[in-house]
Give the backbone structure.
Amino acid sequence: MWQELIQEVRVAQMGVQILFGFLLTVVFTSKYAELSDADQKLYIVTVVLGACATGALIGPVSLHRLVSGRRVKPQAVRWASRLTMLGLLLLLATTTASLLLILRVATDDGFVPYLVAGVVAWYLLCWFALPMWTRHRHTAP
């Protein structure tokens, strides 16, 4: 289970690190100064969420390194799995906030919250609902 978990974390880490890296650069652009107070606060929340997601998704690697050889693999896998799930939830929040911020800046239309809600629903379906349905449907009693 450890090898599979680490492979999953690698995929999620790549996405969160690219997103977080992009978010860190926004404050240094001229467009940032033009953002409304609400959008600047949304940006700060988004960056903090990205930092937290990055920490949670890198956590399993550090956990493995610090407990390797200590004969606590079952406990390490459990904690790494929890960190990964937390990281995915934080990545969902970061992606949602990023999309909201970008669409608010890109357009003034009132459909933005609905569009973001639709994307969040899609993420929830892909990341949680479908896997949980598969788990329920195909797990032997």
Observations:
- The chain is about 85% helix and 0% strand.
- Helices lie at 2-26, 30-34, 37-67, 73-106, 112-138.
- The longest helix spans residues 73-106.
